[in-house]
Design brief:
Blueprint (H helix, E strand, L loop, with lengths): L1 E5 L2 E8 L6 E5 L13 H4 L4 E6 L16 H15 L4 E6 L1 H11 L3 E7 L10 H7 L5 H15 L8 H8 L4 H14 L9 H4 L6 E6 L8 H9 L3 E6 L6 H4 L1 H17 L12 E2 L4 H4 L1
Parallel strand pairs: 3-4, 3-5, 5-6, 6-7, 7-8
Antiparallel strand pairs: 1-2, 2-4, 8-9
Helix pairs in contact: 2-3
Amino acid sequence: MRRVRVSGGELAVVEAGDEENPAVVLLSGGFTSSHVWRNLVPMLAPWTRVLAVDLLGSGGSESPASADLSLGSHAGYVRELLEHLGVERFAVVGHGHGGGVAQLVALGGGAEAMVLIDSIAFDAWPAPSVREAQGAPLDAAAVDAWLRAMLDRGMSHRDRLSEGDLAGYLAPFAGADGVERFARVLGSFDGKGLVDLEPRLAELEIPALVLWGEDDAFVPAELAERLGDALPMATIALLPGCGHFLLEDAAETAVPLVFQYLRSRYLGTPHVHEGAVTVQLGRPPLEDRW
């Protein structure tokens, strides 16, 4: 992990792979961190320069009380980071809140491919559970319970998350400092930044994979189709029996799918067969739509 200072504070970035390779930027955020990408990073690293970013306020990044944590500001911080690292062209992958930031980063230029995994979109955020928490009193026990409930509800196969990996999700918001950090992130979920974005997304003529857990309790699968309609070069993949935390519920399927998509659509290298990957396609594959 390296740390890079941007205008809002210091970002924590997990970096892997050769810096001469094409860059892939991984964005989670909100109540998650680069911990989400722990199974994808080692698969991408031999082929790309991986940059798994903790958004400001999340994970190992700073959480200054004065920092703007809106989606647009997050996108600006990520672009500052890329400029600092000398990255001009890249693929961007976003999950959840990070998916909203990924859309704005891609719209800023330089993106050559995009993957959105159970992403917030349009006006369909935040989830009702977040709005309820915004009006509730917070202490360390309440924050811990809320995060555990988020993972319980957000996963269809909660038993697949080990105690060690659970700790990775809880650690950034532990203790008194964690409560303050949690409150800042919670307050930043304002439902703004992505409203009426369809016309701008329609101008993004880059390969885009929209990957979704069919049973997502926070951002419903109908949003995948709406994003697919907005993005001119999109392919939609719905994974049945999976929830919001797709990379936990079905890592054995989702990780190779993202990897192979980026290899084909971004790196332009031949497919490597690594066993069957079964998904339900919500629309014809990209090559059938051209």
